[in-house]
User: Fold this.
Amino acid sequence: QVQLVESGGGLVQAGGSLRLSCAASASISSIWSMGWYRQAPGKQREFVARITKNSSTNYADSAKGRFTISRDNAKNTVDLQMNSLKPEDTGVYYCHAQLLVAYWGQGTQVTVSS
Assistant:
């Protein structure tokens, strides 16, 4: 099992940046896939970005060119650098770890004002 705790959310103006961090309670070095999802009010949770054990990355089309995901296996953290934020990026951002089952953090709120 692993517990995930997100941090770094907040209120930012459009065009600004935020860096989200996900701290895991156990070693992530053997976890194949870790990533970020988000959920806007009234909408389903959606994929944002993921990074594999060998540092291969995937991004949602909406995140490409603006967001960067990274992982530090020594610190057991996965970060999401978000630049050029837009109001439509507003939502609760969740950290995800895929083991035999999926693990989720409690989420961190990101609000982008226009």
Observations:
- The two ends are 40 Å apart (CA to CA).
- The mean pLDDT is 96.
- The first strand starts at residue 4 and ends at 7.
- The chain is about 0% helix and 55% strand.
